[in-house]
Design goal:
Largest sheet: 4 strands, antiparallel
Radius of gyration: 14 Å
Number of strands: 4
Shape: globular
Oligomer: single chain
Length: about 100
């Protein structure tokens, strides 16, 4: 199994706009070979640095790479820069292969 995560530092006050972008996006991830599940996770607020941590989490086996190179991926990210969300830095990608577990 392969777990793909992106971490987003969303500037305080932009959390609702960030969540709306994800809830209303045109995603066809579920149509991709190997797709299992997707979650958008809201993490802790970092008051000192002024952001809320979010992470997208998908279990797409190793077909995740095919997703990133697909037209579906480009379509899902086409308007990513046009939102009112303020980020602190770029998203940070993390990919994990399961070592142990069911």
């Amino acid at each position: 199994m392969y777990i793909a995560m992106n971490r987003f530092k969303v500037q305080n006050g932009s959390e609702e706009a960030f969540e709306d972008v994800w809830k209303n996006r045109d995603s066809s991830l579920a149509e991709m070979k190997g797709f299992r599940e997707f979650h958008l996770l809201r993490g802790p607020v970092n008051e000192t640095e002024g952001y809320t941590l979010f992470a997208s989490h998908t279990t797409s086996q190793e077909d995740f790479v095919a997703w990133t190179k697909s037209e579906n991926f480009r379509a899902a990210h086409r308007n990513a820069g046009g939102s009112k969300v303020h980020y602190l830095g770029h998203p940070q990608f993390e990919g994990f292969s399961v070592v142990e577990g069911a």
